[in-house]
Amino acid sequence: MSMLHHQKPKKKNTQLSQSKAGGNRVLIKVNVLGSTGPLRFLVNEEELVAAVIDTALKSYAREGRLPVLGSDLNNFLLYCSNAECHALKPWEKIGSYGVRNFVLYKKPEETTTTTTTKMGISGNKGSGNWKAWLNRKSLIYSKMISSH
Questions:
Q1: Is the residue at 74 inside a domain?
Q2: Which DSSP category does 5 fall into?
Q3: So which residues are the signal peptide here (predicted)?
C-alpha cells in the first residue's frame, strides 16, 4: 500500500498591504488647488513626501486634468489638509503624519510675490500656510474685479 503525499497548496501572498520595502500601503487623497476633485492612490507609508508629490503629478497628467501643472516636483509643496501645518519636507516619510488627506499646490512664482506686495498684501514667501496663500489669491482676484 502506497501512501499518497498531499502537498499543501502554496499560500499566495494575500498581504497586498505589505510592500517589498516592508511598510503598509495606504490609500491617500491629494487635492490639487485649482483642479476639481482629489487624486486617490495607494502609497507605502515609508515613501518619502517627494515620491508622493511625483506620483501625484504623474497621476494628474495621466488623467489629463486642468490646469496643466508640469512635472518638476521641486515646484510643488504638499500639506496636510486637515491641519494648519508647515509644508511637508520632501525627505520625510508620508506615513509619519498619520493622515491620509493632503493638498498639493504649486509654489508661488517671484512675480506673484512682487505683485502681491505691490497691492498692499503681506506676501510672506515660503510662509508655509496654504490657506493664507489661497485667501491672498482670492483677495487679489476680488480687487481686480472691483476695479473694472
A1: yes
A2: P
A3: none
75 in any annotated domain: yes
Q: What pTM does this model have?
A: 0.61
User: Which backbone phi and psi does 100 adopt, to 5 degrees?
Assistant: -125, 0
Domain CATH code at residue 78 = 3.10.20.90
Pairing assessment for the beta strands 101-106 and 25-32 based on DSSP bridges? parallel
What is the chain's pLDDT, residue by residue, as a tens digit (148 residues)? 555 555 544 444 433 334 445 679 999 999 998 888 999 999 999 999 999 999 999 999 999 998 888 889 999 999 998 766 789 999 999 999 889 999 998 988 765 444 444 444 444 445 456 566 566 655 555 554 455 5
Total domain count for the chain? 1
Determine, yes or no, domain membership for 58.
yes
